[in-house]
């Protein structure tokens, strides 16, 4: 508005005043400052985008180190250009051609078909970074999937053997798929599918130890039992002098006979034994039950399978159909089964901890053998083959029954709902499959997200619901691309060597620049000038480390010039038209000179209340008093001196068209002002658009980094778990486990062996202190000393006082105290191996979980206690309670979302460790608090008065069968130091809720007595409760 007011006021004047020129100067200076600010902001955003990409790959390298369990350190170079020096542009051009040219990439992969030294690292780089798009979340994996598809097509065309050998013959394809299957979504899906079935297997490891299906071994066990039974049945009076030795001799003779019998008995003859047949049948049914549970998880979750996996499977089938039409369905399904089971799921079974399927468990060798049998059964199902051994007859029947289900499952994976396109009111735009892998199932979350946000197919209704600006933003964002990748230094050398060895083929295909780059890199490597060793020394990087180099190329499409160039250089200046007159050409030069003069000039020097300064007066003053301005502009060598600008204007001002000179250059002034206003709007929109694009990219990058940090944290946790499990298996923890009887109540105490009552040091100390006790009251060393963690919990859980204390709320026998004393001994030993207090606490935490999980059957009540049953019945007869009965205000009510809290609480019986059970309470409370925060209108926090009624309501609806047992178990075996803060508050909330429900009556609720009594009566009748 200020510009228009100034223009209106000017129209009423005949001449341009000094104030007008001052105003125009302020406009130009403001424009310069604003553009300078926008330029700094743009550079900062571009720098942040680059830094975020580096941070992403730094976290990714850390994650890859954890995945591969490598001892070699992966180092990301901060400044790749400085590291390579003069060879940087050749290396960058070489790698970009591989990245951007599908034909060159296909040539590289085919040349690496047989692998070789350095090939695996190269394939890993291709999979993890070469084809990622980190600024477009809807197509992050699109280019990677397209590269895999093209690779599948190339390999199928060149396939010489059976189609089922595709994944074995193609080294690059096999390894790219292997690395792809390690991604976060794939692991999460695998955990969803197999966690329950694997947990059931691991929890029955003791039973699985005896689960062998060899009939001869079973026959051997039966015969041994019969011999032992016969030996133990010998009458006592039969033992005469020397009878003991005779019996020993008889025992030895029998044991020699048993192996002889087993070696000569056949499997068929052993199976004719009724007891052997019964045991084989019983064990076969147990194996079948475990297989069925795992397979049920697969079948039921086909629609939640990550869409990238389904798309890869579909592409395999479509390419085979196109290039090998004679291949049978059985062979196709065998290929899919090899991909999903042989290459992915079955190997994950053998290391469920590393793959995130299980935690806090030590897998026994017998369990691994059992899982191997299950894996073989899965292979036989999708291959439609059977066991040859007779004892697997029942499992073979199961395989035959499951074959049709497996075939249907594999069909469902590659079957997409094509009708989704017919429902669109507009035809889809031309888009090749290789450019858009997301073309399928509307049942998946991935497809829904992609189809709604990034499909080129937009229905009329979509157009109506989207604003014009939103559609323009989507179009602009698609043009905004940033290509980044990280490669190992050895990968660069390997690829250059590979290309140089294939020089004839590369030359024949016309890739001359690509070959030139490869030769330059190879020659530099041979001359040891490929990189700067001084850079590694300055950064304290060892040449033995795996050195990774970061490359980044920005491609902003039609906006490249606007984003990469300076805003001052982007200012639209009037172009000189060759057809214009000389005076008009001079006008453009004069306008530019005036703009530069006004921006650099200090108008305060011209202040004179008695004089009206015109433009010519200002120019003449600058010429005569240039020294005043030279001092002020000292050090600015990049601009034309003001004296020269003024002299240019004084010389050429008369050459502009006459109408621009009238009324003190009124038209010239108006032209400059109008040009400024148009330029202001243009540059403001340009800066806003660029800022929006850059901020969107930063937002997407930060989301990727957050997800990756969680991945790294998960792998760090897995590493700590692995340390703890290895510690349990290998480390000696010497302790003394004593039962001391003080009166009628025995108590449990744990000491280090060096300070236990059996040790000489302890005896001397007690004697000196005058408190020496009679050591005859203690058990022998053999009965009390333990040397490993496994020995401790096997002896601890069998103590009489431990079994007696399971249902007691108070720790009368010091069972929990003894357990915590033992953990202190463990912690002191761990301190010798770990330095960080956080790592030490994490290791002790994992050991605590393992011990309590292993002892669970002995330290947790086998059946519900009397208090459990009483509380459960109270929840049944009060299942009619509504939020208003507990005075939960309407603004806090959301029963639909509370069901998630109910499910979290009901999940508590699926865990064994007290820490995990406590986390179930915490998760339940977290959901309650989050729902309260969403429902509350004020900005205040959530208090106990708000949350406790909802906790009571959730417990009533969850109807936990063993709440008191879980509370007592946590209280006894979870140290108080771990029960402070949030976890302690949550634990008290559920204790309060249990106590409230136990004594719940009409006075505790907001309900009339007659309604209360009526509801209670109906509930008792409904649940068949007498009281």
UniProtKB/TrEMBL annotation:
Residues 865-1006 form the VPS9 domain. It comes from the Eukaryota. It is a peripheral membrane protein. GO terms for biological process: endocytosis. Residues 134-383 form the Ras-GAP domain. SUPFAM superfamilies: GTPase activation domain, GAP, VPS9 domain. GO terms for cellular component: cytosol; endocytic vesicle; membrane. It is found in: Membrane. This is VPS9 domain-containing protein. The lineage of its organism: Eukaryota, Sar, Alveolata, Ciliophora, Postciliodesmatophora.
């Amino acid at each position: 508005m200020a510009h228009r007011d100034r223009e209106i006021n000017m129209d009423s004047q005949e001449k341009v005043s000094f104030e007008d020129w001052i105003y125009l100067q302020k406009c130009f200076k403001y424009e310069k400052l604003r553009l300078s600010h926008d330029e700094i902001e743009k550079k900062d955003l571009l720098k942040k985008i680059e830094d975020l990409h580096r941070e992403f790959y730094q976290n990714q390298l850390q994650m890859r180190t954890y995945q591969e369990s490598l001892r070699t350190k992966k180092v990301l170079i901060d400044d790749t250009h400085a590291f390579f020096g003069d060879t940087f542009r050749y290396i960058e051009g070489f790698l970009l051609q591989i990245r951007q040219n599908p034909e060159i990439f296909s040539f590289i992969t085919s040349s690496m078909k047989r692998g070789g030294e350095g090939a695996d690292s190269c394939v890993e780089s291709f999979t993890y970074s070469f084809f990622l798009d980190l600024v477009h979340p809807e197509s992050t994996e699109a280019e990677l999937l397209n590269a895999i598809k093209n690779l599948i097509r190339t390999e199928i065309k060149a396939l010489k053997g059976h189609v089922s050998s595709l994944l074995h013959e193609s080294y690059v394809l096999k390894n790219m798929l292997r690395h792809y299957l390690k991604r976060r979504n794939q692991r999460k899906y695998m955990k969803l599918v197999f966690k329950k079935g694997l947990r059931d297997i691991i929890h029955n490891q003791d039973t699985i130890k005896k689960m062998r299906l060899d009939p001869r071994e079973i026959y051997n066990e039966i015969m041994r039992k019969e011999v032992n039974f016969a030996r133990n049945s010998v009458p006592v009076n039969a033992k005469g002098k020397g009878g003991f030795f005779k019996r020993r001799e008889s025992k030895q003779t029998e044991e020699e006979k048993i192996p002889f019998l087993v070696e000569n008995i056949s499997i068929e003859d052993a199976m004719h034994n009724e007891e052997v047949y019964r045991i084989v049948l019983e064990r076969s049914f147990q194996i079948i039950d475990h297989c069925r549970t795992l397979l049920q998880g697969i079948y039921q979750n086909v629609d939640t399978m990550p869409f990238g996996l389904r798309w890869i499977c579909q592409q395999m089938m479509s390419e085979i159909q196109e290039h090998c039409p004679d291949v049978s369905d059985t062979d196709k399904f065998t290929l899919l089964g090899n991909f999903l089971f042989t290459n992915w799921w079955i190997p994950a079974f053998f290391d469920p901890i590393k793959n995130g399927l299980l935690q806090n468990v030590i897998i026994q060798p017998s369990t691994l053998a059992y899982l191997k049998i299950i894996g073989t059964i899965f292979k036989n199902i999708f291959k439609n083959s059977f066991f040859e051994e007779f004892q697997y007859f029942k499992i073979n029947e199961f395989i035959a029954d499951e074959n049709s289900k497996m075939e249907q499952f594999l069909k469902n994976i590659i079957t997409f709902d094509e009708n989704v396109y017919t429902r669109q009111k507009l035809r889809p735009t031309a888009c090749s499959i290789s450019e858009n892998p997301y073309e399928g199932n509307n049942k998946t979350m991935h497809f829904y997200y992609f189809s709604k946000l990034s499909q080129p197919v937009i229905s009329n209704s979509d157009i109506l619901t989207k604003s014009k600006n939103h559609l323009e933003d989507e179009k602009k964002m698609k043009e905004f691309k940033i290509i980044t990748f990280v490669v190992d230094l050895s990968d660069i050398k390997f690829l250059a060597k590979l290309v140089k060895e294939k020089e004839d083929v590369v030359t024949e295909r016309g890739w001359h620049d690509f070959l030139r780059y490869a030769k330059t890199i190879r020659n530099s490597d041979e001359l040891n000038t490929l990189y700067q060793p001084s850079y590694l020394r300055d950064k304290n990087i060892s040449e033995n480390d795996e050195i990774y180099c970061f490359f980044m190329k920005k491609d902003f499409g039609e906006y490249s010039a606007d984003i990469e160039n300076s805003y001052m250089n982007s200012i639209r200046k009037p172009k000189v038209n060759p057809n214009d007159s000389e005076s008009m050409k001079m006008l453009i030069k004069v306008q530019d000179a005036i703009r530069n003069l006004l921006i650099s000039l200090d108008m305060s020097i011209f202040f004179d209340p008695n004089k009206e300064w015109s433009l010519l007066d200002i120019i003449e003053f600058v010429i005569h008093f240039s020294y005043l301005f030279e001092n002020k502009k000292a050090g600015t060598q990049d601009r034309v001196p003001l004296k020269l600008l003024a002299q240019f204007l004084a010389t050429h001002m008369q050459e502009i068209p006459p109408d621009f000179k009238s009324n003190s250059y009124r038209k010239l002034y108006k032209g400059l002002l109008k040009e400024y206003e148009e330029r202001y709007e243009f540059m403001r929109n340009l800066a806003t658009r660029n800022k929006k694009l850059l901020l969107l990219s930063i937002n997407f990058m930060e989301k990727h980094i957050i997800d990756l940090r969680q991945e790294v944290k998960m792998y760090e946790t897995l590493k700590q778990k692995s340390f703890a499990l290895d510690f349990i298996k290998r480390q000696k923890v010497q302790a003394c486990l004593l039962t001391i009887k003080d009166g009628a109540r025995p108590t449990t105490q744990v000491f280090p062996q060096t300070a236990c009552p059996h040790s000489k040091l302890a005896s001397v100390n007690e004697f000196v202190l005058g408190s020496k006790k009679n050591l005859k009251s203690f058990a022998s060393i053999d009965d009390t000393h333990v040397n490993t963690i496994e020995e401790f919990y096997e002896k601890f859980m069998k103590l009489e006082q431990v079994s007696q204390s399971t249902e007691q709320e108070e720790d009368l026998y010091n069972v929990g105290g003894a357990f915590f004393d033992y953990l202190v001994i463990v912690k002191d030993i761990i301190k010798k191996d770990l330095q960080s207090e956080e790592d030490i606490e994490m290791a002790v935490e994992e050991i605590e979980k393992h011990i309590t999980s292993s002892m669970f059957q002995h330290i947790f009540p086998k059946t519900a206690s009397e208090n459990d049953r009483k509380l459960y019945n109270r929840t049944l007869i009060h299942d009619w309670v509504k939020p208003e009965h507990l005075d939960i205000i309407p603004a806090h009510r959301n029963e639909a979302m509370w069901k998630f809290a109910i499910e979290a609480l009901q999940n508590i019986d699926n865990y064994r460790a007290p820490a995990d059970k406590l986390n179930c309470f915490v998760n339940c409370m977290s959901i309650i608090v989050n729902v309260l925060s969403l429902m509350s209108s004020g900005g205040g926090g959530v208090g106990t008065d708000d949350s406790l009624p909802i906790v009571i309501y959730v417990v009533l609806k969850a109807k936990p069968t063993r709440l008191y047992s879980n509370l007592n178990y946590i209280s006894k075996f979870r140290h108080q130091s771990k029960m402070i803060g949030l976890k302690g508050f949550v634990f008290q909330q559920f204790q309060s809720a249990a106590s409230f429900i136990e004594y719940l009556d009409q006075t505790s609720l907001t309900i009339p007595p007659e309604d209360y009594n009526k509801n209670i009566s109906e509930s008792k009748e409904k649940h068949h409760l007498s009281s």
